[in-house]
Design brief:
mainly alpha
């Protein structure tokens, strides 16, 4: 059976590609630029206790809407759904800049998130629509470079804005980028005609919303909620079971059955969860080790983390050639091995040592992410028929985002359990090490003992991150051997 329709010739493909890259850059830079500016924003608006919700509501609404927009794009066309979501995102961005207090900012961030769910998956789907199966590996390498560039530019631009300009520009910088992307797509992307009416699976959408909201609240706000996490996880489990039941009987399900009957698409979704979770070992905890345990500067932590952002696009570009020369499975396995190796190398970090091992691990994990993410995405798009390509692409983005939240919770719990076992009498030992005044007030013996125990606890975090990466190897092995981009109409192997 064939899995793809050959894309009709589209004029001005480079301009459409640039528009999609602009849209994805706008979405990717949002997280880093806002995080950099938040201390200044809190200083102006107050409400430090609400800081976590500024990010939580954005992530929750974005995660909920990603698969919904992906399915809507399949049913009603990529162009109109992209324009709707991007318009919501830009409206939320404008309003964020006018926030009089933290409560309004949280509300406008929610609006931003409702639109953000459309940008990344639909832009990626549009690229899959206009390029052939053998062209997609190379083009997706370009797309992945957007992440590396945004990870470097975002913090620098955010720091410049809050130092020299009103902080509202942190949000308003999205406007020219988004409007330019919409202009190019509106002018050059052809709209596909729908041949029949469709109906969105509203019940499935409701259960998905409840599941994601309960799960992310439990994971992201665990310290604040305390024992309320248990009933929230129960609600998430019930909602998931109801979602599965609804999807089995819906005439046009939110998640079509074909997504779970195809080994390639299934591997991409499992891989998305794994690489999202494993990435947090570097992103969230390596800077903490450098600044807290080693007493390094924010610049040292930032430059180390930047190596991950450099390794990602370099490997993504290489992955296109590897897929064509070898196979999806070989390329994904190589990426998974780099993820596991990078996590294990982090165990060599010591309080008194240099940063060589940390920087090597960051680069290796970034390269592993680039190989795995691009390979899983390209293989999924090439395996998905046009009628489900939007939701198939959205699922890879959705699972990676959920994996990041799950990974943060697992690794955070690993750190907290170890600290409680090793330093039961010390309140928040990591914060003590991160505070220069508290650190300087300690005796050399106390500081040495504290850093050693925190380092040992962090090593467990890195070990668990490496173990999580092993599941990426399993996901890669799910892909049929010797399968590689072969042009439109390649055969699909079913489970």
């Amino acid at each position: 059976m064939t899995n793809n329709l050959s894309p009709a010739p589209v004029a001005h493909r480079p301009l459409i590609l640039i528009a999609c890259m602009l849209a994805m850059f706008m979405s990717a830079i949002e997280a880093t630029i806002v995080a950099t500016a938040m201390p200044t924003i809190i200083g102006d608006l107050g409400g430090f206790s609400l800081l976590g919700w500024v990010f939580a509501v954005y992530l929750m609404t974005q995660a909920i809407t990603i698969p919904i927009y992906g399915r809507l794009a399949d049913l009603y066309g990529r162009k109109r759904i992209f324009f709707f979501g991007t318009s919501l995102f830009l409206l939320g961005s404008v309003l964020c800049g006018f926030s009089p207090n933290m409560y309004w900012l949280i509300g406008f961030r929610l609006l931003q998130g409702l639109g953000a769910g459309a940008i990344m998956p639909i832009a990626t789907t549009i690229i899959g629509d206009i390029y052939t199966a053998t062209e997609r590996p190379k083009v997706m390498g370009y797309i992945s470079s957007v992440w590396g560039v945004s990870a470097i530019i975002g913090p620098l631009l955010g720091a410049f804005i809050v130092q020299h300009l009103p902080w509202a520009l942190v949000f308003w910088v999205n406007l020219p980028i988004g409007l330019l992307a919409m202009f190019f797509l509106g002018r050059y992307l052809p709209a596909r005609q729908q041949v029949r009416q469709h109906a969105l699976d509203l019940a499935g959408t409701a259960w998905l919303t409840l599941f994601v909201t309960a799960l992310l609240l439990a994971l992201l706000q665990a310290e604040i909620l305390g024992w309320w996490v248990v009933p929230l996880m129960g609600v998430a489990l019930v909602a998931l079971l109801r979602l599965i039941r609804q999807e089995r009987r819906a005439p046009e399900p939110l998640f079509p059955l074909a997504l779970w009957q195809n080994r390639v698409i299934l591997a991409g979704n499992i891989g998305g969860v794994v690489i999202g979770a494993a990435m947090m070992g570097i992103s969230a905890f390596l800077p903490t080790f450098i600044q807290g345990v080693k007493g390094g500067t924010p610049l040292e932590a930032g430059t180390t983390l930047a190596l991950m952002s450099i390794g990602w696009p370099l490997a993504s570009t290489l992955s296109g050639r590897l897929m064509l020369l070898t196979s999806y499975r070989t390329t994904a396995l190589l990426g998974a091995l780099l993820l596991v190796s990078g996590g294990l190398i982090l165990l060599l970090l010591q309080p008194a040592g240099g940063l060589l091992w940390g920087r090597l691990a960051a680069f290796m994990v970034g390269a592993g992410m680039g190989l795995c993410n691009t390979t899983f995405l390209v293989s999924v798009q090439n395996a998905a028929h046009f009628s489900i390509r939007g939701i198939a692409t959205a699922c890879t983005v959705f699972t990676r985002m959920m994996g990041s939240a799950i990974g943060t919770a697992i690794l955070g719990a690993t750190l907290n359990i170890n600290l409680q076992m090793r330093l039961p009498e010390t309140v928040d030992p990591v914060q003590l090490l991160m505070d220069p005044a508290a650190r300087n007030a300690m005796s050399p013996e106390t500081l040495a003992s504290l850093t050693q125990q925190v380092a040992a606890s962090m090593h467990w975090v890195f070990l668990v991150s490496a173990l999580l990466s092993l599941f990426a190897l399993a996901a890669a092995m799910l892909i049929p051997a010797r399968r590689r981009p072969q042009g439109e109409g390649e055969e699909v192997e079913q489970v």
